[in-house]
């Protein structure tokens, strides 16, 4: 699951790098014309071109955010929830198995079931740790979503 977290973080970084930056774009120099041609209409046309370029960048950014918030994030969250549910069921099953060996523990190290009981206790510990890792991954996914929202809000407010 950490791989999905890393992939989604890399995709977020990639998407922010793919979007055009205003400072890196070449500045178009308008042709020098007679003073009469550089009136309000020429300035309005230049502002319209800048607005079109900004709206295209905003559209690409909005499309990427829509993809993340409404497609990628819900899929990743559903995958984690499914894996967590399966891990919880596995943990409960192993816990019942460990509990079923409780009557045989009175025989100590000499019981025939001692090694099996120890094996299931180790499996119970592994299932518990896997469940905790899945819960941590889910918390990380929500944290990444919050960071993406904050980054978008900061970017939108700077424009």
Strand content: under 5%
- Characterize the overall form: rod-shaped
How many strands, which pairing sense, and closed or not: the largest β-sheet? none
The Rg value, from CA coordinates, equals 29 Å
Low-confidence stretches: 17-27, 32-40
Number of helices: 3
Distance between the termini: 36 Å
- The level of helicity is over 70%
Number of strands: 0
Structure explained in plain terms:
It contains 3 helices and no strands. It has helices at 2-18, 40-100, 114-158. Mean pLDDT is 77; it is low at 17-27 and 32-40. Helix 1 (2-18) packs antiparallel against helix 2, helix 1 runs parallel beside helix 3 and helix 2 (40-100) packs antiparallel against helix 3. 77% of the residues lie in helices and 0% in strands.
Offer a concise description of the structure:
This protein has 159 residues and is mainly α. The protein has helices at residues 2-18, 40-100, 114-158.
Keywords:
rod-shaped, 159 residues, mainly alpha, 3 helices
SSE layout and pairing:
Layout: H1 2-18, H2 40-100, H3 114-158
Helix pairs in contact: 1-2, 1-3, 2-3
């Amino acid at each position: 699951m950490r791989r999905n977290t890393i992939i989604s973080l890399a995709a977020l970084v990639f998407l922010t790098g793919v979007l055009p930056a205003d400072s890196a774009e070449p500045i178009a120099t308008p042709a020098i014309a007679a003073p009469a041609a550089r009136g309000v209409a020429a300035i309005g046309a230049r502002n319209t071109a800048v607005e079109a370029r900004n709206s295209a960048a905003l559209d690409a950014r909005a499309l990427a955010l829509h993809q993340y918030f409404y497609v990628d994030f819900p899929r990743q969250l559903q995958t984690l929830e499914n894996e967590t549910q399966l891990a919880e069921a596995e943990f409960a099953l192993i816990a019942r198995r460990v509990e079923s060996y409780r009557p045989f523990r009175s025989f100590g190290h000499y019981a025939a079931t001692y090694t099996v009981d120890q094996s299931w206790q180790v499996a119970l510990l592994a299932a518990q740790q896997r469940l905790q890792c899945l819960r941590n991954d889910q918390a990380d996914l929500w944290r990444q979503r919050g960071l993406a929202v904050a980054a978008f809000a900061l970017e939108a407010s700077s424009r």
